[in-house]
Amino acid sequence: MFRVRLKQYCSRLGVSTVNYSLLLPVAVPIVFLLAVSSGWSREIHILHYNDFHVNNSPRYTVDEDGDGYYRGGAANLKGLVDSLRTVYSYDLLVNTGDDFQGSPISGFTRGGSQVAILNAMGVEFFCPGNHEFDYGDLNLLEQLAPASFYTICCNVTDDQGRLYWPAYHIIELGGLRLGIIGVITAGLPELVVKENLEHSRVLEPVEEIRRWLRQLEDETDLQLLLSHSGYRTDSLYAVTLPGIDAIIGGHSHTELPQGRWIGNTLVVQAGCCGNWLGDLLITIDDTTGAVTLTDWLHEVGVGQVTPAADMQLTVKQLADQLPAELSEVIGQLAQPWLRERGESNVGDWTADVMRTYAATDLGFMNLGGLRRNLPAGEITRLDIWEVHPFGNHYVTFEMTGQELLMFLQRVARDELNESFAFSGMEFSIHQELGVVSRILIDGESLILNRSYTAVTNNFIFSHLEEIFTLDPALVNARHLPELDRDVIIQAVREQQTVTAVNHNRITFY
Ligand SMILES: [Zn+2]
Question: Which terminus has fewer CB within 10 Å in the chain: N or C?
Fold first, then answer.
């Protein structure tokens, strides 16, 4: 039995909250029958985790009673993996991407720190996520050179159409031949700054997976997909591509305590951030020849597992590479910064700092760009680096009231892949109808034919067309020189005690 607390988890696309009660394994369909042999059962465990996001050290979070606690961390995760692997006869450790980006060490080493963590963790198969491309496609190839694991991905090529990594790998384990295909989201081009993908092409995943599946079906007993595509897309793959036995997912940070059967495919995903380790069990009953699949999550609770000493050392050696001045205390937080779905105190505060810095009418901060909660108390420079790890800068641009209205209507219809914190404005959303109303700019009614100045970061600006339906060449854009985290650090220094409140700028009715 696994006790699961109320959790908050965050993706680039927003934040959700889920409550689980006690969980028990459920009966599972027989996948297929193998020839009966010894009369014994064999158990193969595919341990899996995803979206680790540089949670090398345990992280602060808040339970359902509002009490803060720490969870995860590479040494605790490795301790859990090691303890299971000493017990299991046949096992593999796989990772489905987004290990980069989330803490300064990843930026300093351009992802190299996380390849070192994957190596030390003993990962055997890895499918990259969108954040692995955050420091550029060529950089990713370079950082993966010392990898002691196999990288597999069937749908990213160089500009000549050659795959960067093998599409699949076949491994024999416990008498079963497993075919493992890797795939990354088709949305990769929208999820990274455009220059970081300039040498690469992203292929349409379904056709690519189908092609390799056909090949594997003749050569293997079981076909697994390592997928950095998100739970919804994985569910579609399960429906569209019935030859896959299990999809080990990532990207949406979805906690699937027992996996989900979709047709004959078991879709699994282990939340994010090293808080969970997934355990996909393949059982071969040698009396009947039945092969069954089941999956569950182990919680990586601080104090509940013995941290692995070798990983503690790796984490420390990496942390020692960071400049000492990052531990400088720059101010105090009066109350925790908590990212929530929709509006939050840290979102409103950050959007206000951006707008003040850029001296614009409006501020737009994407919630996926805020990567950490922080407890109340002292704030260090390192804390700000962890909340803002991307090294973005701000960009100002102009838009008319009409263009703002069109954008907010898309927000109200939930058409965007990003959620925003807003500064300088407030509005209402009628949820059922998906319409926006009562838009006020600095307390005044929106004027449709007036021009407003706005600020956002360069990540959002590089997707201005998709998000705001504005042509970046026609909006009088100005790129501001400072890094976003330096602007935030300066704001904390000036305020000394930061009081961040949720202003309820968006009301729902
Ligand atoms: Zn992702």
Answer: N
